[in-house]
Amino acid sequence: MKLRILLLTALTITILHSSLFSSDKLARVIKAYKISQKIQLDGLLSEEVWQQADVATDFRQHQPREGEPATERTEVRVLYDEANLYIGVVCFDSEPEKIVAQKLQRDSGVKDDDMFGFLLDTYHDRRNAFLFATNPNGVEEDGQVEDGAFRPNLDWDGVWQVKAKIHDLGWSAEFKIPLWNLRFRRASNQTWGINFTRIIKRKNEQVNWASWSRDNGGFFRISRAGDLTNLVNLEQGFNLQVKPYSLGKTRRDSLLFTHHTGGEKLDAGLDVKYSLASNLTMDLTVNTDFAQVEADVQQINLTRFPLFFPEKREFFLESASIFQFGEAGFFGPPSLLLFFSRRIGIEGFNTIVPIRGGARITGKVSNFNVGFIDMLTDEKAGFPKTHFTVARVSRDIFQRSRIGFIFTNRADFGSSHNQAYGVDANIWLNNSLKFQSFFAQTRTSDKSGGEDAWKLALDYTSDHFGFFLSHLFIDDDFDPRIGFVLRRDIHRSIFAFRISVQPNGAFLRRTNIRQRILHIVNKNGRLQDWSYSITFNNMLNSGDEINLRYERAFERLDVPFDFRPNIQIPTGDYLTNSVNFRFESSAKRRLVGEIRLGWREFYAGNLLNSSGSFGFNFNKHLNLRLRYERNQITLPQGDLTTDLVEFRFNLAFTTHLFLNTLIQYNSESNEFNSNVRLNFIHSPGSDLFVVFNEIRGREGERIWDGLPARNREFIVKFTKFLRI
Questions:
Q1: Nearest Cα to Cα of residue 301 among 562, 558, 559, 521
Q2: d(C-alpha 188, C-alpha 167), whole Å
Q3: How many domains does the chain have?
Q4: Which of 332, 395, 427, 432 has CB atoms 3.0–4.6 Å from 401's, for a disulfide?
């Protein structure tokens, strides 16, 4: 019955869609110029053919003064030959000595510097695009973007090159992108979507070639990008990519005990990528290894619900947006994900389980977006051999809308199997209003019946006003075992409302005032939680931010909450108040920092949270970051103080050789973690990794009792990218 209501609602809105949808897209067109000569990649655009190409200019401000001409001129040209696409840009600057260029490491966040980037909508479907960007140091940053996304997925890594130079006129850059990196339809004469953006960091100014309006979503609104025309006879050719690896590892465990465990290991594996068609790719992996992945950032749980750690493994991050289903978290953990890739190869409390192999197919067939994953993990530490399957299909409808289906299956050998399936719809009613819905169900072989989850939501976003209205239901036994569920047995309603004012004054640039009301009952209608919050988000003209937040909340405990082994919070109703303050400095400075202060009533006691971070950019090669967080909790049942320390040391020798160090201390576990990674990109797409990991500390003690080594490992991994 619920499914029928959901689908009927979606169908009604779909019928109304065509009459409600409007477009005010400003047409922007640039022609690509075909060449036969070679381009010397030096960042200077010195070849004569650059001057023969069309020029994209007339950039308009997205921030701070929407629609006004950019304060500095930008010129972009596009060339191509049989194998590559070339983008050349000259970023004129009246004060080149003030250009901000502090980054040198790939994918390190070039938006913190002066930056130029562009989107390529190669299907020209106004929905998905590749992102390429650089700064004046020639740093490579790339990713994938969905239309209207708040942020790109920077975990897609293409094989391409860029060179940049700072000079008397400002700075310039040349991009060389092999066509086999991209997916596009077969056609003799193609048009792609394209857009360009530039950040002038010292002015906190962002300018776009197309889609500069804040109401229309800005740079990531692919549906409002310009057109790249005159792409004739493009060919990917035979596209088979092979990436073998070899690895040597030495590991020592149980160092606190007399009899140590561990040993040495030599290993090898293989990743293969093959284009089944120009817009459909198959990935194969054998004996998959993720030794080079950065360690998880430590967290301390002060709630009744599980912690969420994001995926960091490259194989699962690429094209991850195709498999998204559920409700992602905007300012916290997601409420529900029907597929969460960390369930593959990571069991229990971060136990790494070997992945024997698997396959993935992603791409586009006509108006259908398809994704398929099939993986097999080995048995280890009491966890059985397991087979994972995920199938996702969605269909593009109208200009920007989509409906879809997902199926997941987890089969534990010799034990149970679990299945989840669902349908979803994302319907744009106009340029600013989106209807979202899904219905999902899970079934497990050792349980009778199935359990449901569903959601209905409306999301309206414009520059000066926005609202979000949703209702989410999750059954008490809803259990997607390749997914993530934050909280079960809830009917949760949210109404959020935003007003934004942008005076562009000498001190204050913009203020966002957000209010949110949350109401939760269980499936029997018994009240569980409610809250009201108001947040003042102030963006200063300097690029700094100051936030103030107040919340009044109600929480009901129907069963005692075992907060810590020696602290149990009794059943009852708890009404609390909280106040939070945050200051974050602009990333354009060499010295950056953040301060957070928060106080709230914590059940029958109080919680004081204080945290701060400090960073210093010595130059483009070296930067340091130090972060500290303390929670001081007083309760009638006992007191608790927790400390988290995080230190990062990043040394970039060149744009292809980096040393990254992450050191963390968690007072609750008295655990001191070190993760040191050296990455040398010895050729495009090929890496040498040298990794050192160590865990110190004895649980139940304190830092002043000493931090003896508990586990230690040293890894050398070599990969080689081959295109056949």
A1: 562
A2: 39
A3: 1
A4: 427
Q: List Cα–Cα distances, 105 to 212, 274, 674, in angstroms.
A: 28, 29, 21
Question: Per the structure block, which two tokens stand in for 224?
Answer: 């409002």
Query: How many CA atoms within 13 Å lie on the side-chain side of 141?
Result: 26
> Are the CB atoms for 131 and 160 separated by under 8 Å?
no
Give the CATH number for residue 139: 2.60.40.1190
Q: Which of 658, 661, 659, 668 is nearest to 647 (CA)?
A: 661
Which residues does residue 443 pair with via DSSP β-bridges, in sequence order? 419, 450
Query: Residue 238: what pLDDT?
Result: 74
Determine, yes or no, domain membership for 356: no
Residue found by looking up tokens 């050792």 in the block = 446
pLDDT grade for 6, boundaries at 50, 70 and 90 = very low
pLDDT-derived band of residue 275, with 50, 70 and 90 as boundaries? confident
Spatial contact of 720 and 271, defined as CB atoms under 8 Å apart: no
Domain assignment of residue 359, yes or no: no
Provide, rounded to the nearest whole percent, the portion of the chain with pLDDT above 70: 96
Kindly state the tokens that stand for 227: 């057109």
d(CA 117, CA 129): 12
Three-class SS state of 6: helix
Residue 157 CA from chain centroid, whole number: 13
Query: What's the CA gap between 690 and 257, in Å, rounded?
Result: 27
Pairing relationship of beta strands 280-288 and 261-277 according to DSSP bridges: antiparallel
**Beta strands of 236-341 (E only): which ranges?**
240-253, 261-277, 280-288, 326-327, 336-337
> Coil, helix or strand for 675?
strand
Report the C-alpha gap between 555 and 347 in whole angstroms.
31
State the chain's maximal CA–CA distance in angstroms: 78
H/E element, 159: none
pLDDT, tens digit, 9 for 90 and up, residues 643-701: 999 999 999 999 899 999 999 999 988 899 999 999 999 998 899 999 999 999 887 77
Domain assignment of residue 104, yes or no: yes
193 lies in which domain range? 32-232
Q: How far is CA 385 from the centre of its chain?
A: 30
CA distance 426 to 416: 33
Tell me what the mean pLDDT of segment 581-598 comes to: 94
Q: What is the dihedral of CA 315, 321, 323, 325, to 10 degrees?
A: 140
Q: Are 652 and 658 within 8 A, CB to CB?
A: yes
pTM for the model stands at 0.87
Structure tokens at 318: 């690429």
Place of tokens 């980037």: 117
Instruction: Give dist(CA 599, CA 550) in Å, integer.
Output: 10
- DSSP summary character for residue 291: T
Q: Does 454 map to a domain?
A: no
> In this structure, what DSSP letter does residue 40 have?
-
SS3 category, 486:
coil
